[in-house]
Design goal:
The protein has 808 residues and is an alpha+beta fold. It is built from 20 helices and 42 strands.
Amino acid sequence: MLVSYKWLQDYIDLADIQPIEIAEKMTRSGIEIDFVHKRNQGATNVVVGYVMDKQQHPDADKLNVCQVDIGDEEPVQIVCGAPNVDSGQFVAVAKVGARLPGGMKIKKAKLRGQVSQGMICSLQELGIENKLVPKQYAEGIYVFPQTETVKPGDDVLALFALDDEVLELDLTANRSDCMHMLGVAYELAALYDRPVKMPKVKVREIKETAESHLSVSVEDGEDTPYYQAIVIKDIKVEPSPVWLQNRLTAAGIRPISNVVDVTNYVLLEYGQPLHAFDYHALGSKQIHVRRAKEKEAFTTLDGEQRELSSEQLVVTNGKVPVALAGVMGGLDSEVTNDTTMVVLEAAAFQPTLVRLSAKQSSLRSDSSARFEKGINVWRVNEAARRAAYLIQELAGGVVLQGVAEEDHRATKQVVISLNLNEMNHRLGTELSISEVAGIIGRLQFPCEKVEADLVVTIPSRRQDILIKEDLYEEVARIYGYDHLPSTLPVGTATQGKRTDYQSARVNVENSLRSSGLSEVISYSLTSKSKAALFAQKDLHPIAIDKPMSEERSVMRTSLLPHLYDIAAYNINHKNQDLFIYELGSVFLTEETSLTELPHEQERVAAFVSGTYLEHKWQGEKKQADFFLLKGILEEVFAALGLSKRVRYEATEQDGLHPGRSARILIDEEPMGYIGQVHPSLQKKLGLNESYVFDLQIEAILRLNKDNKLYQGVPRYPAIVRDIALVVDHDISVATLEQLIVSTGGELLTAVSLFDVYEGEHMEAGKKSVAFSLTYRHAERTLTDEDVQHAHTKVLVALTEQLNAVLRS
């Protein structure tokens, strides 16, 4: 919301207060002022000039030589190239020595041999944005309307109110009451304890009635709580006076004509959107407000033909739409220079419908912005009378008696009982009842004392105040937040801590980071093709109703596709070594059409590729492979206390190498998979040799964990025995290790694999597996006999149960 400082003074006396002080005061009271703009961007010495004579430049087809009276003793000669310059015009002239925005200095010059003593200016050259310049002056100089009383030498900067300053309000959604000049005036009246001056609304009416020319009806009173139409005839459409154009321009609205400008002016003044129809172009004597028909066609004022839906509200002439209610009028019934009779619409439309209509039509206007936040429905009549008054004054209109209307407004007032003790306790203040009553009075809220309470009636302009806490806030704002005492919180403090789940989750991330992986975060939305890469059986990707693009059309069911995208992007940018992970949610459902909310499941996935370790001095280099990633996973399971419950099972998995992938089982329940990305998929995605894992981390973190047991540093030495076993090729190392641990007894404290051999000098179908076994007793030194007894039990078990042969 842009608020002109000079215009604001029509409603409240602020002559002794500078705009920057107002901005500071309002910001401290809860309405932030982002900027205070100076309208003058550096222009000086610009005056009104009267073009006495215009002649074609003798040596240039597109230049004219003008004799201009600028209020000095003698006229000056100015060479001007504007296509619309002509004799008999009052124009803006930058005199010799003047400066214009951008630092341009006007000097006496010769143009094609003709002396030029100044410059006839366009509005753009005076610092006014092109989008705010009236269309008739967009390609040329500005010409003062014939109705404007100006004389040569008058200060143009004052006439255009360029000596004004504009406050830019950053309003929150609940403060729609300040989306107009009167609302800001009420706010400042409360802050500075000054009265508000209301605009003139008294209209001279003739005996002829509006209802004799027009009838009004609404289809649904909830959609349209109130609709009225004022009929004004014998108007003359022409440019608005300069003061009106200045005020619209300061507020960021382009002037059009006196009638249309008045509707925009009252919109800014009262916050009440209005619309003027050409009465003769309506095509009937009836206005009916209804829902649009499905796929009904309608052309708005911007010339665009729009296809409407039954969720949109339209104003019709009884047959076809003439306006998109609350958003924009229709092209066929717009006010033109030939219009002599208008219907002035003032209404209250349902905010949700207006917002939906504006969104569906991709057409957000100043009108819809106010309707959708809620207008003061009890000031619609007053705003309409104000507009009728201005049209009567500026366009010479004759207002017909009465209005055509239909009223479904519900009389509802918010009354709040303010308890002084409770309010003081909440705010930490010690205000008296008279002080609070004074603040309420400055807000212009009617109130009366009932016993120990103040009963306050909230005016309809303040729709944001509904409960007593809202009223407490108003008192605090006007009293001044800076005056509220600073106190420490009272009560028992509770120390915050992570839940067991959160702590376990942090352990997982710490383990992955300590292994050299970097976290990435990707979108929760993906494309159907990427979702299909790792789609689980019986699960369907969840489609977005109105996706922003095909690439973000469904919810992801796996983290891996986005990890592939990130990896491909880095590889394309010459970052070949990638060690990344993501911990995030996937969204799963078995329903093809959602009848229930989808299940959100937290998962963790990792991607590794390239050189993991490189010591150039020693000539050591380690590439990412299956076992590197498996080792990183084992570190995660160790951090969670699950190492002994995890098993890997070779399997085939879609998208992974058939001979280098495995399922991950915990307590024999599948919890994810690990493997190399399938070579064909690697090639398709532009990846190098890559390895991934994907875990149902949410289910894993909710498993019962083994309690951590801490042991002291051993006091007695250990005895280590190494064994090399020849076993069948299909016996896994895990099977051997489990048998050794189960038969080794309490003296066996550690088992470590250090060699696996297959090949030359080894019988076909056999392999050699070597383990290091550590024996220790916590309370004494072991003897050879103790170790030999336990070691022999291990060897016997391996021989009898797995046909292992001790290799010499």
